[in-house]
Amino acid sequence: MHRRTFLSTLAAAPAAANGVPVRAITSGPKFHWFGYYDKLQFDPSSRYVLSNEVNFEGRSPKPDDVIRLGVIDLKDGNRWREIGKTSAWNWQQGAMLQ
To answer: Number of structural domains, the chain?
Structure first.
């Protein structure tokens, strides 16, 4: 089972029980996530969501792996907009998006 499938089933069950709407805002083939507990991923208007994007999952990053940093525009069909890229990152913290 892919991580995305697992997380969507895990997240949907409690939310549905509490009446909280849940929906995916990204899709494959690339993998998206936001990482770090003390950073806000939504802008003040709740239109844009910060995100990381990579072409792989299930292994540690290699020196030549690049992470793309971007925003998902919730008012434009969940469109991904790249704002930069780096090779200095890790799974837990991403690139410390702020």
So the answer is: 1
Separation in Å, CA 17 to CA 3, 5, 7, 23, 75: 22, 19, 16, 14, 26
Cα(58)–Cα(64) distance, rounded to whole angstroms? 16
User: How far is the C-alpha of 80 from the C-alpha of 64, rounded, in Å?
Assistant: 23
Is 35 contained in some domain?
Answer: yes
At residue 68, the 3 state secondary structure works out as strand
pTM summary value: 0.73
Q: Within 10 A of 53 (CB to CB), how many other CB atoms are there?
A: 19
Q: What is the pLDDT of residues 29-63, one digit of tens each?
A: 999 988 777 778 889 999 999 999 999 998 989 99
